[in-house]
Sequence to fold (198 residues):
Amino acid sequence: MAEILVLYYSRSGATAELARQVCRGIESVAEASARLRTVPPVFPQSEAAPVPVPASGPPYATLEDLRETQALVLGSPTRFGNMAAPLKHFLDGTASLWLSGALAGKPAAVFTATQTMHGGQESTLLSMMLPLLHHGMYLVGLPYTERALNDTRSGGTPYGASHVSGAAAAAAALSEAERTLAQALGRRVAALAVQLAR
Ligand SMILES: Cc1cc2nc3c(=O)[nH]c(=O)nc-3n(C[C@H](O)[C@H](O)[C@H](O)COP(=O)(O)O)c2cc1C
Fold:
C-alpha cells in the first residue's frame, strides 16, 4: 500500500478543488490512498502558533505527514509568479528531513491556480519543484499522451496540473480538461509510488 500526501495552500478555494481532483486520481489506483493536508496562513508575527486545527477542511500538515507517506503532490495558488508564502514557510521548516534524506527517492508532483491565463503558472510550477529536487524527490509531470493536454483552453501543463480561476476564484469551477489532468497527475504519482513500494 502506498500513501500519497496531497499538501496544498488555498485562500479562495481554487487550489483546494485541484487538490480534491488529484486525490480522486490517486484513489483510482489499486493499493494507493491519499492523505490530504493543508498549511496555516502566515501572519506578520508568523512564529506565533496558529490555532492547532483549522475551522474547516483538512488538518494542518506536520513533518510526520511527509515522513510517513510514500509520495507528495504539492499545490499552491500563484502569488506574483511564485508559490504562496504559507507553503514556502512550511517547506522552509523541513531542514531536518533534508538532513536525514527522508524524502530522497520518493515521487513528487506540483499543481497551481492563477487568476489569469498567462499569470505565471509555469514559473510557479517550476519554482515549486526546486525544494523538492533539493530533497532528492523524483519529479512527475504530465505527458502529451494525456489527450486533455492538447485540448485544454485553460489550465493544464506538462509541468503539473493547473487551473485558471478568473477574477472570482471561488466561483470558477474547473474545466473538464483541468479536472482530467489533475486526476491524471494524481494517478501517475500514485502508480509510480506503488511500483517503488513493491
Ligand atoms: C498576493 C497575490 C498575488 C497573486 N499573484 C498572481 C499572479 O502572479 N498571477 C495570477 O494569475 N494570479 C495571481 N493571483 C491570483 C491567484 O493566484 C488566484 O486568484 C488563484 O486562483 C487563487 O487560488 P486559491 O483560490 O486556491 O487561493 C495573486 C493573488 C494574490 C492574493
